[in-house]
From TrEMBL:
Species annotation: Prosthecobacter vanneervenii
Statement: the UniProt record of this protein carries the keyword Coiled coil: yes
Lineage: Bacteria, Pseudomonadati, Verrucomicrobiota, Verrucomicrobiia, Verrucomicrobiales
Alphabetically ordered keywords of this record: Coiled coil
Alphabetized Pfam families for the sequence: HNH
UniProt-recorded name of the protein: HNH nuclease domain-containing protein
Residues forming coiled coils: 73-100
GO function term, MF aspect, one: endonuclease activity
The organism's place on the tree of life at top rank: Bacteria
Length: 274
């Protein structure tokens, strides 16, 4: 057995499993994943340079990438050595499949726990009823798209806005159903507002344009306003352009001018000219 394989064998199975899970069973050099390739655990700082088996010094690498790095790993020419190495590889593949199954079982049980925690969270907010399988399936779907904080805060908003209490520990069934049906929509809207905090204001400015101008290209107007924000033009500037402009053509020219007036544009222009 050569050096590299020795080192690999010396990494305890539990640490190898942790590294593989962290790297999602995927070669961090080329992106190929098990079970399509056999994965090795590679030392970032080599053992020869005092690299240790700390998880931060270990990385998942497929066989190809690992071989490319360490020349002549499989230079063994005797048939016996080859057979032995093939057996080792089979064993390795089997172990990795087992690890991957365990990982996936872990992910699944984590997902189930998450769903039941969220059910409880909702049932506490909206007391009196329990979620049926359809409700649980809805939550399962949300978990695939949204983070847990996104879902719980949407639940908070839905509860606050739509629930009607008929006693201290019971809400009306009607309001319960209405509130629950709003949760995913609230998640979606608040995510959009987070990635683009100006969006409501930009829609509003475009509304001014639509009211004032005889012609307004809705899609292009929003694009121009976004561009202007990207380059650092203030919302107040855009609002006053919209309030003063006389035509679609002059609106475009005014926004262009405002963009060229920003520091960011001038710096980009300068470096681009060189
Ligand atoms: Zn690779």
């Amino acid at each position: 057995m050569n050096d590299i394989e020795n080192r690999r064998k010396n990494i305890p199975k539990s640490i190898r499993f942790e590294v593989l899970k962290r790297d999602k069973f995927t070669c961090q050099y080329c992106g190929k994943a098990a079970p399509d390739v056999i994965l090795h655990i590679d030392h970032i700082n080599p053992v020869a340079n005092d690299g240790d088996n700390d998880i931060t010094n270990l990385i998942t690498s497929c066989e190809g990438c690992n071989l490319g790095k360490s020349d002549k790993l499989l230079s063994d020419d005797s048939a016996l050595k080859k057979a032995k190495s093939q057996m080792d590889k089979l064993q390795e593949r089997r172990e990795q499949l087992e690890m991957m199954m365990e990982w996936q079982r872990g992910l699944k049980s984590l997902a189930n726990t998450t769903v039941s925690e969220l059910c409880t969270y909702w049932e506490d907010l909206a007391p009196g009823y329990q979620l049926n399988d359809n409700g649980k399936n809805d939550i399962k779907k949300w978990v695939r798209t949204f983070s847990i904080p996104e879902i719980t805060s949407a639940m908070d908003v839905a509860a606050e806005q739509y629930l009607v209490f008929e006693s201290d520990n019971k809400v009306t069934l009607e309001s319960w159903a209405a509130a629950f049906s709003k949760i995913s929509g609230i998640c979606r809207v608040s995510r959009q507002a987070k990635t683009e905090p100006d969006i409501r204001e930009l829609y509003y400015i475009r509304g001014i344009l639509r009211n004032r101008l005889r012609y307004c290209d809705d899609g292009l107007a929003l694009e121009l306003l976004r561009d202007a924000r990207f380059w650092g033009v203030g919302l107040d500037v855009l609002r006053s352009i919209a309030l003063q402009t006389r035509s679609w053509t002059s609106f475009k020219a005014d926004v262009d001018f405002a963009i060229q007036d920003t520091d960011a544009w001038q710096m980009a222009g300068r470096s681009g000219a060189e």
